[in-house]
Structures are given as C-alpha cells and as structure tokens.
Amino acid sequence: MRGQCMRTGQGFLSAFSVIDRGSFEEICKFQRQILRVKDRDVFLMILIGDKADLDHQRQVTQEEGQQLAQQLKVTYMEASATIRMNVDQVFHELVQVLRKFQEQECPSPEPTRKEKDKKACHCVIF
C-alpha cells in the first residue's frame, strides 16, 4: 500500500516529530525509498518538523531540521497542529512547490499567435 502511494503521489509531506529523534533519523531512509519507487534522483518533498510547540521536550533542533533539508534539497518548515502553527502554510507551500515542479517537468507549449490573439480579445470588467 505504501509503495502504491509513493508510485502515484505527485509530492510528499514528510513529517518527523521534533520530540522524537528516531522519527527524524528515519527521514533519509523514507526519501531513498520514495526515490527508488519513483525511479528518480530528485523528487518533490517538503520536510515538516511537527510538534514544534513542545520546545521543552525537543530532541531535534530547528538547525538540525534545516541542515537535513539542505542535504536532501527540500523545503523545511516547522508546525504544530495543537496550536495551528504553520498548518495551512505547509499545504500552501506544497501546492506552490508542486506547481513549480510540474511546470519544470511538463512545460506547457508556447501558445500560437492565434491563441494569443484569442486570449487578448477577452476582457471582463467588474
């Protein structure tokens, strides 16, 4: 089931708990598995440090999360569902990164002169 999700997924939010070093250490293995299943060297992923509100229990620093993200060449964000910190921003970021990735992978063809003229003729005023 996990492999099927990896094969069909267009992007991944990979989360680890900042209060659990073990989950942090599994991220590299998870990314290698995604790349193997996708048969790629690079793929869209955003790394999320979850439970960022539990600072007093933190086992993984923000700097460690950022360093891992740089190593994996992915975006890094910290979030907390409990206090709704960055929850919406994480999904907005994923959509933006996914759109950019799709444009790089499958650039849309240049519109013909006729299509450009057609678009230029349409105007809506509110």
TrEMBL record:
Pfam families documented for this protein: Ras
The keyword Nucleotide-binding is assigned to this record: yes
Subcellular location: Endomembrane system
GO (cellular component) term, any one: membrane
SUPFAM superfamilies listed in its UniProt record: P-loop containing nucleoside triphosphate hydrolases
InterPro entries: P-loop_NTPase, Small_GTPase, Small_GTPase_Ras-type
GO molecular function, one term: GTPase activity
Keywords: GTP-binding, Nucleotide-binding
Gene3D superfamilies xrefs: P-loop containing nucleotide triphosphate hydrolases (3.40.50.300)
Keyword GTP-binding: yes
Domain of life of the organism encoding this protein: Eukaryota
GO BP terms in the entry: signal transduction
Protein name (database record): Ras-related protein R-Ras2
